[in-house]
Amino acid sequence: MTDLRQDPPPPIRAARARVLFGACEAQRDFALCALGGAVLIALLAKALAPGIEALAVLALYAVAATAIVTRLPHDLPYPALGWCNVVTAFRGVLVAFLAVPLLTGTGTPWLVPAVALLALSLDGVDGWLARTRGMTSRFGARFDLEVDAALACILALHAAHGVSAALVPAMLVLGFLRYVFVAAALLLPWLGRDLPDRFSRKAACVVQLSALIVLQVPVLPHVAIGPVALGAAAILSASFGRDVLWLWQRR
After folding, report:
1. Of 75, 86, 96, 184, which has fewest CB within 10 angstroms of its CB?
2. Which among 241, 250, 213 is positioned nearest to 121, based on CA atoms?
3. Within-domain flag for 183
4. Where do the TM regions start and end (predicted)?
């Protein structure tokens, strides 16, 4: 799993010299990926539940893709997009599709956990490709992190539909703690500093997403829902709390 706050190796000078030209190639590649993703989402959504909800998902996907492609010339220090970012883009397509059954309430009981498990399984693939092909970058790390955050958010909203009111706060923690942290950093700039790479942070993210997927499984005993949700929320909160404490001590 890629960590945004891990300092990537410095890009080679040739890549920096070609950054403006290379970004055009990367933008073209990403635009093609985004177009293919939009077509795939449209086809899957049409089969699942055609309607205004699918159009809303496509509109949000288009906004996100446009924001990413406009940042490529500034954030990607390589001449090409790279297969690592293609895999992350595909993960983004899967995450966007999960919003369709969320809005429509349609789909088979195993659809959401199956698609989410595929998205999580590919999480290590993009990082491995980036490392083995020498294409690690802050852009790739940020892209990967935002896809993970969106996946957690959508899965938490799915899970919140079937839990008691007492567990809703745990779902909010699992789905939105990352966004609360980002919003707080806008008010407290010291929260925006880079953090040291920690295995515990990556492990907490895996626990978070794994727990959210488990909560989607239709055969999960009702008695297990509370421990899974509360345990994962506690682990995630402790991880963020440790980071906040580290940043506060160095503010």
Report:
1. 184
2. 213
3. yes
4. 55-73, 80-104, 110-129, 229-248
User: How many domains is the chain built from?
Assistant: 1
- Give the domain range for residue 89: 13-249
pLDDT digits (tens, 9 = 90+) for 5-40: 444 444 444 344 344 444 478 899 999 999 999 999
Report the C-alpha dihedral over residues 91, 148, 174, 57, rounded to 10 degrees.
-50
Whole-Å CA distances, 165 to 150, 162, 210, 214, 235: 23, 9, 22, 19, 21
Give the three-state DSSP class for 60.
helix
How does DSSP assign 208-250, residue by residue?
A: HHHHHHHTT-TTS-HHHHHHHHHHHHHHHHHHHHHHHHHHHHT
What 3-state DSSP class applies to 197? coil
Cβ(3)–Cβ(204) below 8 Å: no
User: Which value, to the nearest 10 degrees, does the dihedral of the CA atoms of residues 166, 232, 86, 180 take?
Assistant: 60
CATH number for 173: 1.20.120.1760
pTM score, two decimals?
0.87
5, part of any domain: no
DSSP count for the chain of H helices, then E strands: 10, 0
Retrieve residue 115's tokens. Answer: 């698609």
Model confidence pLDDT, tens digit, residues 182-208? 999 999 999 999 898 899 999 999 999
Enumerate long-range contacts of 42-48, CB under 8 Å, 24 or more apart: 44/97, 44/100, 45/97, 45/100, 48/100, 48/101, 48/104, 48/106, 48/107, 48/111
Structural domain contains residue 3: no
Output the CA–CA distances (angstroms, integers) from residue 170 to 157, 158, 174, in the order listed: 11, 13, 6
Integer CA distances (angstroms), 177 to 71, 127, 236, in order: 25, 23, 8
